[in-house]
Amino acid sequence: MPPPGGYNQPPGGYNPPPQYGGGSGIDDRSWNLINHFGGAAGAFVSGGVGGWIAPLIVLLAQGNRSPYLRSEAVKALNFQLIWSIVGLIGWATSCLGIGVIITAAAWLVGMIFGIIAGVKASNNEPYNYPLSVQFIK
């Protein structure tokens, strides 16, 4: 005769821990740090034109799951897009001399405000970027 509850029950009333599946193991705060610091790192590495890559990845990967992450990623993406365009204009006009200054400004603005936003994100504070235009809503 089988024990009460059947053969598949663990002995002694042991309850196994719940199984969590499908998650990446990274919480919203970590994704937000990737969002903002990734934008600053992208601007640094690419010379001011690639800061939009990390916020776009966060928006596509987590935007449908978390409204908070979507909001923060859209703000970072809009900011980094405008300064990437400014950096691209700087690169295109660098032969005129003024482009070097424009590129340096885009590089510094993308990095500095991305780092400030990352520090705010590490304290779980939302951050509104200055000098930004809303391309994506």
Structure description:
With 137 residues, this protein is mainly alpha-helical. The chain has one domain. Helix content is 58%, strand content 0%. It has four helices and no strands. It has helices spanning 28-46, 53-62, 67-92, 98-122.
Q: Kindly state the mean pLDDT as a whole number? A: 84
User: What is Rg?
Assistant: 22 Å
Uncertain stretches of 5 or more adjacent residues: 16-23
How many domains, in number, for the residues? 1
Major pleated sheet: none
Helix content: 55-70%
Find the structural class using helix and strand composition: mainly alpha
The percent range for strand residues is under 5%
Question: Count of DSSP helices?
Answer: 4
Q: Tell me the span between the first and last alpha carbons.
A: 64 Å
DSSP E strands, number: 0
Overall geometric form:
elongated
Name the helix and strand elements from N-terminus to C-terminus, one letter apiece.
HHHH
Strand-helix topology:
Elements: H1 28-46, H2 53-62, H3 67-92, H4 98-122
Question: In brief, what are we looking at here?
Answer:
With 137 residues, the chain is mainly alpha-helical. The protein contains four helices and no strands.
Task: Name the features.
mainly alpha; 58% helix; elongated
